[in-house]
Amino acid sequence: MIDNGLMMQYFEWYLKADSTLWNSLKQDAENLSKLGVTSVWMPPAYKGAAGVEDTGYGVYDLYDLGEFDQKGTVPTKYGTKKEYIEAIKELHNYKINAYADIVLNHKMGADKVEQVSAQEFNEVNRYQMIGDTKTIGAWTGFTFPGRKGKYSKFKWNWTHFDGIDWNQDELKKSLYKFSGKEWDEDVDLTENGNYDYLMGADIDFSNQEVYEELVKWATWYVKIADLDGFRLDAVKHIPSHFYRDFLFKLRQDTERELFAVGEYWHWDVIRLKNYINEVQGGASLFDVPLHFNFHNCSKLHGAYDLRFLFDGTLVKADPMKAVTFVDNHDSQPGQSLESWVEDWFKIHAYAIILLRQEGYPCVFYGDYKGIPHDKIKSKKKDLDKLMKLRKTKAYGPQHDYIDDPNCIGWTREGDDEHKDSGLAVVMSDGTGGTKHMYIGQKFAGAHFRDILGSAKYDIKIDEYGFGDFYVNRDGVAVWVRKASGQGAK
């Protein structure tokens, strides 16, 4: 019997820098398994430039998983290498896959300044040079003195990068491209002219030494941590041919399937589809357009036409490559990509990604556990119910009733492998309503109840397999068959 897949992003941006996350995950593994979680997206595990305060996206040393005294700390924000590997082992004990977040676009926190010939460029038009060629002080020398060559003797220097955003000689922040280098073309070319550069020292993916070192590192990483896959950060800033070749080589060298999902932050599904084609289907993508539809719907609160909720989404265009989500660490309040789905619509959105047949859903730690930094409360109570329903009930043929601007629904007939599976969902962003929906003749005469508790009265399925499923104002109702012995109310 194969259960539905379910990913959890096990971190949010403002976690305390107390190096306890790996231990917390280890303790939580059994509970996650019971909820139906089949994979965990873990935050970047290697040492960042800000040491214990670094969320992991300010990449310093890819080989330091909380093992060496670098940047003022041995553990990372999340814990030590030993704790990290123990957490993954515990996930595997409960048949949960471990996905590592890898950030390969840039490096930060260099150990020494190098004198480099460079030109200054316009940050909003990366093809427009705005200064003459001159020598700058660039933080591009990465020697990792704390690691002393363990695992890899590779040292990074300016030739391994395209450019940087700081001239140490003049203490000036600007965008500098190194002489003899070009911005990578196989990236997003619709923003800032060329969106190769994002931050820090920008890695030159056309450099063969860089490619070989990153493949060597990733092979080591997969084996030493026993990884099952990757979340790929900022892929629109990295040449698509790099990840096409990198993932193929890595799967070949490790002899593992290695699931991969990329973060291509753009509302246009055509861009996402093009990227999937460019990497020859080697990676899935997060469904950012669906997230924006959720965000817009929550902001418009009743003025959004729910019939168009799936228009322009990856889950509609390519459901097998769509990782669906409601929010994440980038969209949460206070972040540069803030686009938070408002509280009243959260469970609506989660019902959509968890209880429909299309897509690979990802639950956000910040929604599940809460975000104390912004006084955002946990949605654990309702999410526990929805996640368990995905594990036990959300199977079989799906019938859509997405035919009203303010009230939509769908049913799942269930299957023979999952006992008592099948469910119906109705949601509203307005006055509520009733949907006459087919759920299957095998349920004729059965009583259904709303497991979320917003609908007061149970309903009975007619002899043809239809039921009049209803929902209250701004609500979500998830209807499941009542156990025998539970009468109607």
Counting DSSP E segments of at least 2 residues, the number of strands comes to 25
- Rough outline: elongated
Overall pLDDT, averaged? 96
For the termini, the CA-CA separation is 34 Å
Largest sheet entry: 8 strands, parallel, barrel
Taken as a percent bin, the fraction of beta residues is 15-25%
Helix content: 10-25%
What kind of oligomer do you see? single chain
Strand arrangement across the biggest beta sheet: 1-2-5-13-14-15-16-17
Class from secondary-structure proportions = alpha/beta
Number of helices in the DSSP assignment: 10
Ranges where pLDDT stays below 50 over 5 or more residues in a row are none
The radius of gyration over CA amounts to 25 Å
Provide an overview of this structure:
The strands form five sheets. Strands 1-2-5-13-14-15-16-17 form an eight-stranded parallel beta barrel. Helix 3 crosses helix 4 (240-254) and helix 8 packs parallel to helix 10. The chain is elongated. The chain has 489 residues and is of the alpha/beta class. The model has no long low-confidence stretch (mean pLDDT 96). The protein contains ten helices and 25 strands.
Quick description:
By secondary structure, the chain is an alpha/beta fold. The chain contains 10 helices and 25 strands.
Task: Give structural attributes.
single chain; 489 residues; alpha/beta; 8-stranded parallel β-barrel; 7-stranded antiparallel sheet; 25 strands; 25% strand
